[in-house]
Specification:
seven-stranded mixed sheet; BirA Bifunctional Protein, domain 2; alpha+beta; SH3 type barrels; 2 domains; about 25% helix
Length: about 250
């Protein structure tokens, strides 16, 4: 049986605008963390780049508030820890379906998105993050059908989906393990584990950037977590942020 990680608090709410927004409010009010915040319903859930995150009842919506005392660039590496934790949680419920991680911070089952991760932080005068909110949404019972990348849910795969509180228990335990590995050994342990589960490594991809799209081959992620894209002529380009699409 998974046990709740020592030293982590839990705030379970019925309804909130956004668990990430609640983490922001509590951080500014002095909450030291680490604190998991979960809600049965979000009225203004959000994903990356300001997108709306739809979370029907029965899905897991949770945010972890922590204070790593690292630079925002270092803190961004914890999206990989979160993705690995989600994969660990999902593996408790299925061995018949392929669980893979899509750069930068999605989790796929059989090639369809089942979870998303959103990191938000604020920096102090010293340049270090004053807090980090790691928002995680997992499709347990249902999934939206109007997403840019095809989605799925555990229930849609014919799996008896766990209750959100049970999924959170597994998730919190798994994240605590990866977080400790990151604090002790840096990004290297996360990088190796993430690459072993990477979706589409070696495939041709399209990366959407702020100034347009770029095509290439997904070669690697570097020591910071940036995507390494192979271009014609043996040239590589390192991309810190973007949306990845796999070509059929």
């Amino acid at each position: 049986m998974t046990s709740w990680p020592v030293g982590y608090g839990l705030l379970a709410l019925e309804e909130i605008d956004s668990t990430n927004e609640e983490a922001r409010r509590r951080a500014r009010a002095g909450e030291p963390g680490p604190l998991w915040i979960t809600a049965t319903r979000q009225t203004a859930g959000r994903g990356r780049r300001g997108r709306v995150w739809v979370a029907p009842t029965g899905n897991l919506s949770a945010t972890l508030l922590i204070r790593p005392k690292r630079s925002p660039t270092d803190c961004a590496q914890l999206s990989f820890a979160a993705a690995l934790a989600v994969a660990d949680m999902l593996s408790h419920h299925t061995s018949a379906h392929q669980i893979r991680l899509k750069w930068p911070n999605d989790v796929l089952v059989d090639g369809r998105k089942i979870a998303g991760i959103l990191l938000e932080s604020e920096s102090g005068a010293d340049g270090l993050a004053t807090y980090l909110a790691i928002g995680i949404g997992i499709n347990l019972a249902a999934y939206p059908d109007d997403t840019e990348h095809p989605a799925t849910a555990l229930a849609a795969l014919g799996i008896v989906a766990p209750a959100p509180k049970d999924a959170l228990l597994d998730l919190a335990g798994a994240f605590a393990k990866w977080y400790e590995a990151w604090r002790e050994d840096g990004f290297s342990a996360l990088r190796v584990a993430w690459l072993s589960r990477a979706f589409g490594l070696g495939s041709r991809i399209r990366v959407r950037l702020a100034d347009g799209d770029i095509l290439g081959v997904f070669r690697d992620i570097d020591e910071t977590g940036a995507l390494v894209l192979g271009l014609p002529g043996g040239v590589t380009r390192t991309i810190a942020s973007g949306d990845v699409f796999f070509r059929g």
